[in-house]
Design a protein that fits this description.
Blueprint: E1 5-14, E2 26-32, E3 39-45, E4 50-56, E5 73-79, E6 82-86, E7 109-117
Parallel strand pairs: 1-7
Antiparallel strand pairs: 1-4, 2-3, 2-5, 5-6
């Protein structure tokens, strides 16, 4: 597999109020769910509810899943170093979809949507 930089974005809000989650105590980590050991893909601080993590797609093709190009992604949200939320796994995220006319990659950024965290 060649190196390909891809990105996920998501929004974190408080379940009750719908207000964005954020501050220096919040951190989001992205993982690829695998049969033996999950691959850590990256992390970022949560600012104004926004999560944005870029990573090399080759990182998801670890020893237990060589050649994987469609990772099974989930986010873990930490507050002051303690896990407060883990999303469901989004299976087979395909970053390498090509635009039919230009044959250029069309989905290098995937949006995991709005994630509601318990208040």
């Amino acid at each position: 597999m060649t190196h390909q930089l891809v990105r996920i974005v998501a929004r974190l809000v408080h379940e009750g109020s719908g207000q964005p989650v954020g501050g220096p105590e919040y951190l989001a980590r992205l993982f690829d769910d695998d049969p033996v050991r999950d691959d850590f893909l990256g992390e970022c601080p949560v600012t104004s509810g926004r999560v944005e993590i870029a990573f090399d797609l080759e990182r998801s093709a670890a020893g237990d899943t060589p050649g994987e190009t469609m990772p099974d992604l989930y986010l873990v949200v930490l507050k002051s170093g303690v896990e407060i939320h883990r999303t469901c796994v989004v299976p087979d995220v395909d970053f390498l979809v090509t635009e039919p006319v230009t044959r250029e990659y069309d989905e290098l950024t995937q949006d995991l949507g709005t994630i509601r965290l318990p208040s």
